[in-house]
From TrEMBL:
Keywords per UniProt: Actin-binding, ATP-binding, Motor protein, Myosin, Nucleotide-binding
Gene symbol of the encoding locus: Myo1b
GO CC list: brush border; cytoplasm; microvillus; myosin complex; plasma membrane
Family of this protein: Belongs to the TRAFAC class myosin-kinesin ATPase superfamily. Myosin family.
Entry's Gene Ontology molecular function annotations: actin filament binding; ATP binding; microfilament motor activity
Entries under Gene3D superfamilies matching the protein: 1.20.5.190, 1.20.58.530, 6.20.240.20, Kinesin motor domain
Domain Myosin motor: 1-307
SUPFAM superfamilies found in the cross-reference section: P-loop containing nucleoside triphosphate hydrolases
Official protein name in the record: MYO1B protein
InterPro entries per the UniProt record, alphabetical: Kinesin_motor_dom_sf, Myosin_head_motor_dom-like, P-loop_NTPase
Length: 348
């Protein structure tokens, strides 16, 4: 019920993960249709980049304001931090505070004076400002790390490498928020180089009980996980896409004109293949470099035809091999019979 600095940085990480989910699924999905010249219906979705900017902007972000309060001289308290937020973020549409200059929150009795509220992608979350400055300023001072590095125990010495006099850095150690922000940035950079697969877990009830399905709870999770937008984009678009070359290579045995070798461009081969199979035109579209298939059932049909064709080809190969083996044996027997007969006639 009481969210503090820890929950704030956890929710910040969730925002960044949601952002990369949007970029790698919804945004990339629609941009690919544009690149490939495919006609389709554009689907609107909420991009949470504005919330990430509210938290991590280097000049006006909440983490930047918190670091500035921790580093500035003079009296610094949680209230002065909240006052700074009210000055900098007052007009932001996803930031709310009773002390804000924005009058629309002055009569909001559900928001205490010592709190601020952020409209996250998953909904509104209220944070208790008490403890933010101390928790963000929870630093390991240089003299402590140097003392631990001088310990005789090898494990303790290894845990505090920054205490090594040869590596002394006169800069102030980074705050907890800065360290977390850097870790999140490293994670995002790593994820963007991968091809992630998403597994969304839906909690059916809060009691962890079997056979209990809370429809309102499940509906809430589906909305804030962005699954509705994802489903709408998938249904409006195409379920499967593949470059022409591997598509032709995989399914070319289904058409006599493309099997065993197609001499022309890969796209022309795919067009001949799909026309030969009689697939309805509304089930696929030709992009600049890829074939787009709308419904999974069309792909399943292609896979079933390919499976049957592979079985037929395997039977054909077995038949030809057995025929070749029998014919080779027959010719050898015939040759041997001629030799035996000729020698027999010579001595008879």
């Amino acid at each position: 019920q009481d969210n503090s600095f820890e929950q704030f940085i956890i929710n910040y990480c969730n925002e960044k993960l949601q952002q990369i989910f949007i970029e790698l699924t919804l945004k990339e999905e629609q941009e690919e249709y544009i690149r490939e010249g495919i006609e389709w219906t554009h689907i609107e979705y909420f991009n949470n980049a504005i919330i990430c900017d509210l938290i991590e902007n280097n000049q006006t972000g909440i983490l930047a304001m918190l670091d500035e309060e921790c580093l500035r001289p003079g009296t610094v308290t949680d209230d002065t931090f909240l006052e700074k937020l009210n000055q900098v973020c007052a007009t932001h549409q996803h930031f709310e505070s009773r002390m804000s200059k924005c009058s629309r929150f002055l009569n909001d009795t559900s928001l205490p004076h010592s709190c601020f509220r952020i409209q996250h992608y998953a909904g509104k979350v209220m944070y208790q400002v008490e403890g933010f400055v101390d928790k963000n300023n929870d630093l390991l001072y240089r003299d402590l790390s140097q003392a631990m590095w001088k310990a005789n125990h090898s494990l303790i010495k290894a845990l505090f490498p920054e205490g090594n006099p040869a590596k002394i850095n006169l800069k102030r150690p980074p705050t907890a928020g800065s360290q977390f922000k850097a870790s999140v940035a490293t994670l995002m950079k790593n994820l963007q180089t991968k091809n992630p697969n998403y597994i969304r877990c839906i909690k059916p009830n809060d009691k962890k009980a079997a056979h209990v399905f809370n429809e309102a709870l499940v509906g809430h999770q589906i909305r804030y996980l962005g699954l509705l937008e994802n489903v709408r984009v998938r249904r409006a678009g195409y379920a499967f896409r593949q470059p022409y070359e591997p598509c032709l290579e995989r399914y070319k045995m289904l058409c006599k004109q493309t099997w065993p070798h197609w001499r022309g461009p890969a796209r022309a081969g795919v067009e001949v293949l799909f026309n030969e199979l009689g697939i309805p035109e509304e089930e696929f579209s030709f992009g600049r470099s890829k074939i787009f298939i709308r419904n999974p059932r069309t792909l399943f049909k292609l896979e079933d035809l390919r499976k049957q064709r592979l079985e037929d080809l395997a039977t054909l190969i077995g038949k030809i091999y057995r025929g070749w083996k029998c014919r080779t044996h027959f010719l050898l027997m015939k040759k041997c019979q001629i030799v035996i007969a000729s020698w027999y006639r010579r001595y008879s």
